[in-house]
Design a protein that fits this description.
The structure holds two protein chains of two kinds.
Chain A: E1 2-10, H1 14-25, E2 28-31, E3 36-45, H2 48-58, E4 62-66, H3 74-83, E5 89-94, H4 99-107, E6 112-115, H5 120-177, H6 189-216, E7 224-228, H7 229-239, H8 241-246, E8 250-254, E9 260-264, H9 265-281, E10 288-295, E11 299-306, H10 313-318, H11 340-350, E12 354-360, E13 364-372, H12 389-392
Parallel strand pairs in A: 1-3, 1-4, 4-5, 5-6, 8-10
Antiparallel strand pairs in A: 2-3, 7-9, 10-11, 11-13, 12-13
Helix pairs in contact in A: 5-6, 7-9, 9-11
Chain B: E1 4-8, H1 12-24, E2 28-32, H2 35-44, E3 49-53, H3 61-72, E4 78-82, H4 97-103, E5 107-110, H5 115-126
Parallel strand pairs in B: 1-2, 1-3, 3-4, 4-5
Classes of the chains: A alpha/beta, B alpha/beta.
Chain lengths: ~400, ~130
């Protein structure tokens, strides 16, 4: 990667301009830490008015600006640029170097100050600093833009996911209130039932969304403690006992009495709850769920198998993306937000783990999650949170 | 004989609502749940009108299907329905003239569809 920066030199001394141009045109600044090198082209102006015109038409990256100019002074041009919000990194130069002018220039948006006379080495040094500054600023800008875009897409889909059930419920209520099927209330029973199901689904979406934002928000402190997975899994199973009983589903749990890992309780519970509730929700009447937890020297391995409706291959591929739900006749009455597994996937990445799914359509699915027993503790690095998870959420990262 | 309407939507609730309304207005209906299913159906059947949802397996499935229908079965009227509006944040808004021309649907209705509105459009397009 190489960058070519355009430098505008505004000075009324022709010798000064050509001297700077000669140095910069031959200058190559290599920045291995940013995996790039920077070269320069130069444009010249002998007064501030002409300089302004060039800035507006040619948009240089750097401005080397003399203070004492005929007509408009360098400082006045600088003020104009700030007013017009022109994005050009400015270095002031003057033969009458005084602290006062320097302070004034920096206050008005100049990046740095070069006192005449200066050596080619001094110029190169400052230009290197300026280049790094410009590159960092641009990197930050593009990252911010990408974040904004991802956020916008997420909110757009979220709005749609919230609006769909509302539209469905509203549609049913319209039919009821217009009495399209006559005055017999019983004719509308199935519509009321569907409305209740869609409302429950909306509620679930909101809860899952809260889980997800809690994980992704940089505000939340991750508290690492010793977690006995056996205990937490038992609790999670109990939480879904009623749902399992309703469909006569047997849940088998195979695990040593204690199996420990370090982690955040909330995060680990979200993983367990999602895997277990899915295995029950997407099961069949009289089905079976097998939960198996083991470990090797580095990982704990959680395996949840069901004898449920299963998935086709193309469906398993997109399963871990936000808002993906497998839509068919069998999933129609199952509440889901499409956020559960995408949240699990994000969490698994935070534990340097792996999530894998094996599924056979109408036979069942097996989810295997491996989590690092001793994951990177966020306390060890002054609280930097992997805030890139939202950006990277697109890829399923499955092993 | 009743006129036949093809419904294309992946939201079964919406299909059920349309079914209730269309039956009440004495139309026969056939249902498909995706763009691909609808295309397959149209190879063998000749409905009098199609009601197509915008967002199905992909966010623009409805557009693509509508475009396909208008190219291959020019005489088949299409009503596009969607819960998507510009207020949900999508760039798309079927209300702009330009997009209406491009999509070439014969009518646009917002979800949830009102019975009176639906009957009005059906009368207009099928000339009862």
């Amino acid at each position: 990667m190489a960058e070519l920066f355009k430098v505008l030199v505004v000075d009324d001394e022709a010798g000064m301009r050509s001297g700077i141009a000669r140095v910069l045109n031959e200058c190559v600044i290599s920045l291995p830490e940013m995996k790039t090198e920077v070269r320069f082209t130069t444009v010249e102006a002998d007064n501030a008015e002409q300089g302004l015109e060039i800035i507006e038409t040619q948009k240089p990256d750097v401005l080397l600006l003399d203070h004492k100019l005929p007509g408009m002074t360098g400082l006045e041009l600088l003020i104009k640029l700030t007013e017009k919000k022109v994005d050009v990194l400015t270095i002031m130069m003057t033969a009458y170097a005084s602290l006062e002018t320097a302070v004034e220039a920096t206050r008005n948006g100049a990046y740095d100050f070069l006192a005449k006379p200066f050596s080619p080495a001094e110029l190169k040094n400052l230009i290197r600093k300026a280049s790094v500054r410009i590159l960092y600023k641009r990197q930050a800008q593009s990252l911010a833009e990408e974040k904004k875009k991802v956020r916008f897409e997420f909110i757009s889909i979220l709005a749609h996911e919230l609006k769909s059930p509302l539209a469905a419920i509203q549609g049913y209520l319209n039919i009821v209130s217009e009495k399209i099927l006559g005055n017999d209330l019983a004719a509308y029973d199935s519509m009321i039932e569907r409305s209740v199901i869609r409302l429950e689904g909306m509620k679930k979406l909101i809860f899952d969304l809260l889980d997800m934002t809690r994980i992704e928000s940089e505000q939340r402190k991750r508290e690492f403690t010793n977690i006995n997975l056996a205990e937490h899994t038992k609790k999670a199973i109990e939480g879904f006992a009623l749902a399992a009983k309703e469909h006569n589903i047997t849940v088998n749990f195979d695990c040593p009495d204690t199996i420990e890992m370090k982690g955040d309780v909330l995060e680990v519970d979200i993983i367990l709850n999602n895997l277990i509730s899915n295995a029950i929700k997407y099961n069949k009447e009289n089905g079976k769920v097998d939960i198996n937890i083991g470990s090797d020297d580095k990982y704990v391995i959680i395996k949840v198998s069901d004898t449920g409706i299963g998935m086709k291959e193309d469906e398993t591929k997109k399963l871990f993306k936000d808002f993906v739900r497998i839509k068919n006749d069998q999933t129609r009455n199952i509440l889901g937000s499409g956020l559960g597994l995408s949240t699990v996937n994000k969490l698994v990445q935070m534990y340097d783990g792996k999530i894998d799914v094996l599924s056979e359509f109408s036979k069942g699915s097996t989810f295997t999650v491996a989590l690092l027993k001793n994951p990177h503790n966020p306390k060890d690095d002054s609280g930097t949170h992997p805030n890139n998870i939202l950006v990277n959420a697109e890829g399923s990262n499955r092993a | 004989m009743n006129k036949k309407i093809l419904i294309v939507d992946d939201d079964t609730d919406f299909i059920e609502q349309l079914e209730v309304m269309l039956k009440q207005a004495s139309y026969d209906i056939d249902k498909t749940y995706s763009k691909a299913e609808a295309e397959e159906y149209l190879q063998k059947n000749k409905p009098d009108l199609a009601i197509v949802d915008l967002m199905m397996e992909n966010t623009d499935s409805g557009f693509a299907l509508c475009y396909h229908i208008k190219k291959q079965y020019n005489n088949l009227p299409v009503i596009m329905v969607t819960a998507v509006t510009n207020e949900t944040g999508f760039q798309f808004d079927a209300a702009t003239k330009e997009e209406k021309t491009w999509i070439r649907a014969d009518a646009f209705l917002a979800k949830p569809i009102r019975f009176e509105q639906l009957k009005k459009e059906l009368n207009r397009l099928l000339g009862n």
